[in-house]
Structures are given as C-alpha cells and as structure tokens.
C-alpha cells in the first residue's frame, strides 16, 4: 500500500491557546476539496450537498473549491465535472484510470494520497457513506492527519481559520466540535441529507485538471468479482423520500403495521419504522430510521406510535415537518415534532388514510 | 488460524442521560458494554475458528475496567485476551488509537502470525469508523469494510471472498489474507457460550500490556499523538417550542380532519405533494 | 468432564454474596452462578442497607463500598388525601463514625459485594441461569444444571440464594407455591436530582440522608407501604402492596406510584428530577409462618428464597446477609469436623437462624400479616381519621379545644366503632409485642 511521503512537521502550538502559527509548509495547503462520490456513473447526492457546504467554507476563507472525481475514463466523467462546477466547484480534478472503475480501498487511497500530497488542499470533505468512510479512514492514516467523522455542521473557526466540525456523540445525546489544528489537510466526513442541497447554477464556470495516475492493476490484491445492485429499489428511496410514514412499537403488533402501509400508499409515501419494529420483523431492517438506520429528511414525516428516543430522533429531526401521533401526551417525540395528535394511532391512521383518499378524489375531480 | 478481534468498551448510549440541572452527562449507573457492532465481528471470527480451528484473540485498548469486556468476549468463545492499558494512552484520537492497536497486533503477530483482524463497523461512542481502516493501512493489510457476508476462505491459497455493502448494492470482493474486516450489523447473531466458555472466561489470565510492552514511539499515542482536538462538547439545543397539539372534538376522524386542514393551511406547498 | 465444587451458590444478591464470600474466605472451593449480566443487574431495592449485618461479614466495608448517604432522620407518615400526619426522628448521633443505616443503589452495591466475592477466591459466573437441582435417587442434591451447553456442575452442597420466587426449591418440591397474600409487589423509581435540591428540601448536608416511610390513602385501601429515600444524586421512591390485594382490587401498581408522585406533600419533594430507572419486584411478606424448610440433604436456602423478610420493619437485606453467612459458617464448621452435609448436620444452620434476631424478630410479628390483611381500616379509615383530627385540631377557628376533641372522638367512633378502635389497638399491640 502506498506510504505517505514523510509528512511535514506539525505546527508548533503557541503557549496556552488555540492561536498559533502554521509552519510555512502547512500554510501552503489551500482550498476546500470535496471528493465526489461516483459509482458506475451515478453521483451520490451527498457530494453535491458537500459542494454547497464547501462553497460556504471556501468563501469564508477566500479560497477555491475543488472537486475530485475518481473513476475509469468514460463519457460520464465530463458530465459529472460539469455538475460539480454547477454546484459550486471552481476546479475539478479528474483522476482517471481503469483501476478506479469500481471503488476499492487500495487504489483509491493510493491515488488520493498522492493527489492530496501534490495539490495540498487545506480541507478535504467526503460523504459519510460506505465509500466515504472507508476511504477517509485509510487516507487520514496515510496522510497522518486528523479526521472528524459523520459531521452534521461545519464552520470556520474565526480565531485560527481552521475547520470546526461538529458531530453528534454518545448516540446524539451530545454534540462535540472537533478541530485539527496543527496538521493538514483537515478531513471530515459528513452525514448525507443533513446539509442543504445547493441551488444548481448552470452558468458557473470552472477549470478541469486531469490527473492520470497510470496504475498497474496487478499490484492491487483485491478484485471486484461482481456487483449486485439492490434489487429492492425501495431501500434507496427511503433516504430520499419526500413523505415518510413511520410506525413504532405503539402499533403493538405486526398486523397493525398495515395501517402505516395504507396511509403511505394513499400519500405515495415511503414506510419507515423504529428499531423495535424492524427487530421484531414487522418490517425489513432497511426501513429503520435512526442512529443505526437511515437518516431521512422528507418534507413530511408522520410518526405513529413512536416514543421519540434520541436514537430515533437523530434520524428524522431534520425533516421539514414532523407530525407525531402518540397516545402519551408526554412522549418525548412531542419535544421535537412540529405538530402532534394525542390519540390512538390505531384509529387515527385509518382516519387519516380515509380522509386523504377522499380529498384526493375531490382534487382529481376538480382538475 | 489466528484471528485478532478489536473490541471497545463503551457506555451504553441508550442509558446515558443529560443531567437536567447541570447539563452534563450522568454516568452514574450507566453500564459499560462491548460496542454492539464489535459483536458481529467477534461472532464471525468465532465461526471461522469453529471451521478452521486456531485462536481468536480479543484486544482492547482502554482503562483497567475494560477487562470486563474482554472476559465477556471470552465467555462467547474467544480464546485469549489482551488489555492494552496505560495512562499515556489517554486522550488518543483515532489516529493514535490505531497506532497503539497496530503495535499490539504486531506483537501478537510475532507470537503467532495473524491471518485476520476484525474490527467493529464503528463504535457507538466515538462513532468514527476510522480505527479499523487505520489499522489496515498501518498493517498493510487488505481493508474489507461493511462486510455483509464472508463467502469463502481458502487457507491454502490464502484467498478470501466477501460481500461488501456499498451504496446501491453489494460488491463481491476477492482478496487475500491477511486482511482487516469490519462486519455489517445484522450479518449474524451472537452465540450463547457454553459452560466451558464461561469457566474459561472466569479463569484465563489476561495479557496486560502497556506502552512499554509494544509501543515504539511514545509521541504517537495519547493527546500528543492525536491531530484532532475536541474544542467543545455541548448539549443539542432543544427545539424552542414543543409540538403544536391538534385538538378536535369528535374522536379520531375529527382529529384526522383537523390535522389535514392544519397541514394544508400551514404548508400550502406540501398540499400538492400530499394529494397528487 | 463435569467440574466439582465444595459448594455452589445460586444467585448473587445480598444473601448469595454473603454466603459465597464467607465460604471462599473459609477456604472452600466455591462456584457462584448468577443469571443477571452482573450481580445487581436484576436487583431492585429501596434501598436501605443495615450496617450491622454487613460488618459481621466485611468489617471494613465502609472503606470502599458504594454507599450513598447515611440516615440521620427517619420519618413515618400517614398520608391523607392531601396531607400527612407523622413522626420524625432525627439525631446528630447518627453522624457517628460507624453509622447504622445507609441508602445504597443496589446495582452498584451488589456489584461491589460480588467483586469482594471474587477477590476472596470464589469463581463467579454470570448470565447463566440455574434451571434445576441435580438429585440422586435418595433425593440428595449433588449439583445443578444451567441453561448453557455442557451446563452440569457438581457440588457437595447447593445454596439456593435465588430470591423471592425461589424457583429452584419450588421446582424440586422443596417449597410450596408462593401465595399471593404472602408477597407484596413493589414498584420503584430512581429520580435523578440536583444534590443541592436534596440538601435544601430534606435539610441535610454532606452525606446525610433521610428516609420517609409512608402508609395511608395512597394504597387505595390495600395493605401496603410507600417509601422515599435520599441518595447522593437521586431519590428513590416506591410503593408496594400485597399481590392478593392488587388482584382483588384490580388496581395497577404503576397507577399507585403515579398517584404517590402526584400526592400534594410528595410532589414538591421530587420536583425537578428525571426518572432514570423503573422497576418492580416482589417482597416476601408472609412472615414467620411462611418460612419453609431451610435445609436438607445437600442443600440450604437463604435470604428471600427462604422467605426471611421482616415486613413490619422493612428489613430484608440484613436477614438475607445474615442467613447467607450462617449457611456458610455451617458448612465451614461441618467441613472442619469432617461431617457430611446431610440434613441432620445442616440443621445447625436452622439453629443459628432460630437463635438470632432473624427468627426471633419474625416470630415476634408472626401474627402481623394476618392482622393487617384482615383490617383494611389501617390503610383506609385511619389515615383519614388521623389526618382529619390533626386538621381539626390545628385549624384555629374559634371553636374551643374541648369541643374539637369531642368532634374528633365522634368522627372516630362514626367511622369505626369504639369497640373496633380498642380492638385494633389491642391487636396491633399484640402483634408488635
Ligand atoms: C445503540 C442503539 C442504537 C439504536 N438505534 C436506533 C435507531 O436507529 N432507530 C430507532 O428507532 N431506535 C434505535 N434505538 C432504540 C431506541 O433507543 C428506542 O428504543 C426505540 O426508538 C423505541 O422505539 P419506539 O418508539 O417504537 O418504541 P417505544 O419506546 O416502546 O414507544 C412506543 C410509543 O408508542 C406510544 N403508543 C403506545 N400505544 C399507542 C397507540 N395505540 N397509539 C399511539 N401511540 C401509542 C407510546 O406512548 C410510546 O411513546 C437504538 C438503541 C441503541 C441502544
Ligand atoms: C422495592 C423493594 C424495596 C426494598 N427495600 C429494602 C430496604 O430498604 N432494606 C432492606 O433491607 N431490604 C429491602 N428490600 C428487601 C431486599 O431487597 C431483599 O430482602 C433482598 O434483596 C434479598 O436478598 P436475596 O439475596 O435473598 O435475593 P435477591 O436480592 O433477590 O437476589 C437473588 C439473586 O439470584 C439471582 N437468581 C435468581 N434465580 C436464579 C437462577 N435460577 N439462577 C441463577 N441466578 C438466579 C437473581 O438474578 C438475583 O441476583 C426491598 C425489596 C424491594 C422489592
Ligand atoms: N480502544 C479501542 N480498543 C480496541 N478496539 C478499538 C478501540 N477503539 C476502536 N476500536 C475498534 O475500531 C472499531 C471502530 O471504532 P471507531 O473508529 O471508534 O468507530 C471498533 O468497533 C473497534 O473494533
């Protein structure tokens, strides 16, 4: 595996504070980078969310936004470069080699290490996806620098111009802000669907820098034998659904979960669930919302019979509107839901289904 | 076969509360558990041991009380345990932690070559998913994260085939030993050890290692060896207002009607999505 | 190969820990099996710990045991609908070097105690449930079976310290079913609260603590008591009633606890806390007459499993610890004398119980459970009457005191005939004598 070139010495801390001088070598690190995650030509939306965020950070620092696209040479690369610029990149680095066709840790981390050491960005952002977290963990080690995982908020610390990355800890009970002061680049992975999707601006322009690493495939040990796409397309949809109806243990038994499906069907919504429901097998585990499930950000999140434990909350609290149905007026879900109905979900759900159905009929007739 | 499983003792996050008055974490009575994700990796390691024989060494870096998690791991069937503990390790971030753990794994490797290292997908307190990749990188091992299934292991050709979860699908990867694997949650379920496992867990002496046992460069562990600095820990701001309650006389259907009216009047844009 | 020990102790509550500790200190080869994740993980207690019983086992326990507060004040309250009448006893002398009573958190205390057991040399295995006693043709116990694969373990003696349900003994027909009138169901919560509030509301400083025992209207006429204890950073509040009463009245224990927490005199004491832990547990309250056979060939039973609990004084853990110690000392003595652990020899354990406060106290109150059970007025009419009387007496409204006395007396006579009053007093006096 590629070894990092001898890393520049860390900066000296000035006595007693977070204010200090970076060494000249480290000062040379400039620009905010986003590693654009593409697999088989498809870009993970978190990458665009991050470009929006990178733009804000770069503007505060007065530097450029760089987007790095890795992959095998192909027509879609140009397209993705264009999109990256439209979403906020000033410069796009396309790193193209047949060995990068499918994501593998070894070639990706090798070239990323080299590219970072060549172009010296001060900040490198990745999505907290399976790819982003796998790659970030590897290159932070080869680069011997700090990495903050799974962030939900990014900012530039005014006192020392370094990245202040905020992330939940202890399952979301607490937040902490982490900084990499004396090392460069500063790295972070960011949770999908937490940052706002930026406006696409087709008129933006930017430079494209091509990097050809000339990798020799035979030095890489791990081979991709096959890729099995999720036949269950619903999985991907939960994270991107506009409307989600979620059920919890308050529905009491598996059969009652049908009430959730019914309402979801009328609304064209996705079905979500709290962990006890997925654990009991009432619904498949890919529908679990929360810390150990999906983070969702729909326009409307209806939670029926869900208490609102912190582990569930962190997965859904960024929804635009949360409507909670719970028989207990003191249920914690009412602490973060926007609207609440105190009542029996087993009765309210079918009532909602029925009335939405009627309204839709009326609506259809009218139009 | 020699397998090392890295486990971490963590406070059970489900039971952590914020003190209502002082706004600090109340650890009193919060039990320490083995990081739940590590158990999927441990179980997978035990299955390989069942199949190929050999040893499963559990390794943790932590305070002396982390012994409990090692004993627990042995009660599931792990054969040996190493507790890496030293004041000098305090304050280690993931880079420093992976350095210290790698040092210990190297020492274990000298005793008997290590074929596989298992880590948890991530921890529930640190939650970084970085230590595993850090170890793999430092050990120059193949890195196989988010593994949903180990399809095949061939000890003669030293090949391993796994299914790795990626966005939108599953990669089937063929790789080689030694490798570092993190297992996906739900990929298996932990066994209930036998009475013999319980006796072994209660009786086997732990290997107690410290920085002098295996760490070459003291500057790379603890606060000194950690590039990241925690600058602030704080309680999430509670939403200023609680949910607005929808009240209506006349039971569920009246409540439902009131709810829909509210949604439509408060969020006119949403109405389009709802009755498309 | 099946392992063999001198003794197996089933359960790691106060009784099991005392037995295992004493045995291991006595040099015997001991296995202790606990079904919970660790000792204390499944245990619920109020919890007051009585120092004397523990001192006899671990004299210097104060050095490192996780103690919350030592009790300097005891309050006994009779709750009315929105009032209480009661007595308080507070003494500076409870601030001595060796206080007599402490509040503890069982999960922590048991864990500490069990650690001592390990240090003393016993082998402790948790998360393992003993499913049955192994007995030979003659009925002699020679070991246990657990719920794990290869789960058989042998021993000369099995000490059952498995708590109030005493499932092992019952499954082996060594005890009859637990009767609903012989067990109370208690529910309790721990409320985390700022220690400054505890100091202010209970007028304590440092590690001083207060205990409030309550009876009265909150149990809805059922036989039962409630309690509120101060811990370091939390309050324990709970309430319990006989199972037979819960059954007959159809009231849920959770509802009772809610009512208690909302009682106007309790609410201000617990306000601002955050509920951390909720649990329910049985308490053996059948008293002397419900104590089963406590030993036989190759077995002894200790603590709650032997129904050793003094409901009148809310003592349980001290009887548990003492009985555990007695069982252990018995075995150590037999071993020293080279005697077999057969029923005739183990009877020494029963004798030790009889000669100590354990059986003497239980005997003293042997009629109390029945009296309480037959006399709902203690939990119903009397709280009303006494609170009403106090209210009357302490309301200055121009009525002369003599007339007030008359009113009070009449109110008593109306709710309960004078004869009944005298009878109750007599019954109680007898039961307590
Ligand atoms: C490490 C870890 C990770 C976790 N990750 C997740 C996660 O990703 N996602 C997740 O969801 N959980 C997660 N959990 C579990 C989480 O702590 C909670 O236990 C869980 O969210 C509770 O699910 P619930 O609200 O459905 O059930 P409960 O907490 O049992 O709540 C049921 C609710 O239904 C209400 N109710 C009952 N009957 C009715 C009725 N008839 N009508 C209306 N309301 C009714 C009740 O008042 C109650 O509020 C995790 C826990 C841990 C320890
Ligand atoms: C709400 C409440 C408040 C109380 N308050 C007080 C008080 O203030 N002061 C006081 O002195 N007493 C109090 N008591 C009584 C006291 O808790 C008991 O008397 C005491 O705990 C009895 O100890 P024990 O060891 O016999 O049983 P337990 O403490 O019940 O311990 C039994 C142990 O055995 C284990 N076990 C059970 N079955 C098996 C099995 N098959 N295999 C393996 N392990 C098994 C259990 O997990 C448990 O750990 C209270 C009780 C309650 C319920
Ligand atoms: N202190 C530690 N000791 C042993 N293993 C650890 C430690 N910290 C992390 N790990 C391993 O690395 C995995 C990922 O941890 P993290 O990077 O903290 O999310 C964990 O699931 C463990 O397997």
TrEMBL record, chain A:
Its cofactor is FAD. GO terms for molecular function: electron transfer activity; flavin adenine dinucleotide binding. GO terms for biological process: fatty acid beta-oxidation using acyl-CoA dehydrogenase. CDD domains: ETF_alpha (cd01715). Coiled coil: none annotated. Binds 1 FAD per dimer. Residues 32-224 form the Electron transfer flavoprotein alpha/beta-subunit N-terminal domain. InterPro entries: DHS-like_NAD/FAD-binding_dom, ETF_a/b_N, ETF_a/FixB, ETF_alpha_N, ETF_asu_C, ETF_asu_C_CS, Rossmann-like_a/b/a_fold. FAD binds at residues 274-275, 288-292, 305-312, 326. Keywords: Electron transport, FAD, Flavoprotein, Transport. Belongs to the ETF alpha-subunit/FixB family. This is Protein fixB. It comes from Skermanella stibiiresistens SB22.
UniProtKB/TrEMBL annotation, chain B:
FixA and FixB form a heterodimer. GO terms for molecular function: electron transfer activity. The keyword Ligase does not apply. May play a role in a redox process involved in nitrogen fixation. Residues 22-218 form the Electron transfer flavoprotein alpha/beta-subunit N-terminal domain. Belongs to the ETF beta-subunit/FixA family. Gene3D superfamilies: HUPs. Keywords: Electron transport, Transport. InterPro entries: ET-Flavoprotein_bsu_CS, ETF_a/b_N, ETF_b, ETF_beta_N, Rossmann-like_a/b/a_fold. Pfam families: ETF. This is Protein FixA. The keyword Transport applies.
UniProtKB/TrEMBL annotation, chain C:
The keyword Protein biosynthesis does not apply. Pfam families: ETF-QO_FixC_C, FAD_binding_3. Its cofactor is FAD. This is Protein FixC. InterPro entries: FAD-bd, FAD/NAD-bd_sf, FixC-like, FixC-like_C. SUPFAM superfamilies: FAD-linked reductases, C-terminal domain (SSF54373), FAD/NAD(P)-binding domain (SSF51905). Residues 368-433 form the FixC-like C-terminal domain. Belongs to the ETF-QO/FixC family. It comes from Skermanella stibiiresistens SB22.
